[in-house]
Amino acid sequence: MYDCIIIGAGPAGMTSAIYLLRANKKILLLESSSYGGQIINASNIENYPGYESISGFELATNMYNQVKKLGGEIKYETVIRVNEDKTVVTNKDTYQATSVIIATGAQNRKLNLPNEKEFIGKGVSYCATCDGNFFKNKIVAVNGGGNTALEDALYLSELAKEVYLIHRRDEFRGDNKYLDEIKAKDNIKLILNSNIISINGNERLESITIKNNSEEETTIEINGLFIAIGQEPKNEIFNNVVDLENGYIKTIDDVHTKTKGIYVAGDTRTKELRQLTTAVSDGSIAASIAIKEMKGDN
Ligand code: NAP
Questions:
Q1: Is 131 an annotated catalytic residue?
Q2: How much is the pTM?
Q3: Which residues, 6+ apart, have CB-to-CB distance to 215 below 8 Å?
């Protein structure tokens, strides 16, 4: 029996764990892949107070070490279902808790092209810092217009011979700071107002076909395609205990869900700003409220 089961070991979930452990609560942190959530792939984080600049991996590892040092139990299992009575069913076991914090973040959005899945690991990637090294002196494309795409294009420009940065609009959503750096690079070519309409190749990715706003189609030969078009939540499995709004878990007063004792923290909930700072903020609020409501002094 746990005081709290936290689902997701990203910044929100790990912050909840730290707060609960420091309050002497027995917790179980469940994670389906690796700790760190989305920040694990960020090459440089410059908007987290206290660090002028830190790699996402280092920051996530610091959080993870903090959880372990406090005695936190982490299991790498995939949650299949959460019941109203706070039993949590995974692919391996069933656990019981007094409270549950859902901190499952969001997953990389797919272009949803017919053969996209087939080419993952064969030229298509969602993580430049993980896979960029495979494309030394090759030709790659990055798709997207947010900070991830801009950072990825800059990172890849140091490795690849040529980088196409393809975005569906004529304006980027990402910071001007990155855009200025991109414009100063000789080997980054901007392709605006264009969408990727097909991924082509036999065994491996060989080219992509793009279509611009004037309906003109062009095929570009590339070795690697980095898709950086944002994230989306995957919350359908929690349907029985929470309400969803555009896929995000609907919150009542910050971190409450419609089910007593089930809370939500981080990018996976409805909120104004999805950032690292707001994820750790949610994590601490969810844990503090869970602790308070366990004692019954709500
Ligand atoms: P994002 O800001 O949501 O940007 C996603 C981009 O992908 C947008 O430009 C969007 O186009 C485009 N897009 C979405 N769906 C698409 C589709 N189906 N086809 C083509 N393009 C599509 O996502 P993100 O860049 O991953 O960033 C997420 C958050 O993390 C942001 O708050 C960002 O600032 C933050 N972040 C910060 C850092 C840093 O501080 N170093 C680094 C990375 C990320 P539209 O613009 O047309 O909507």
A1: yes
A2: 0.79
A3: none
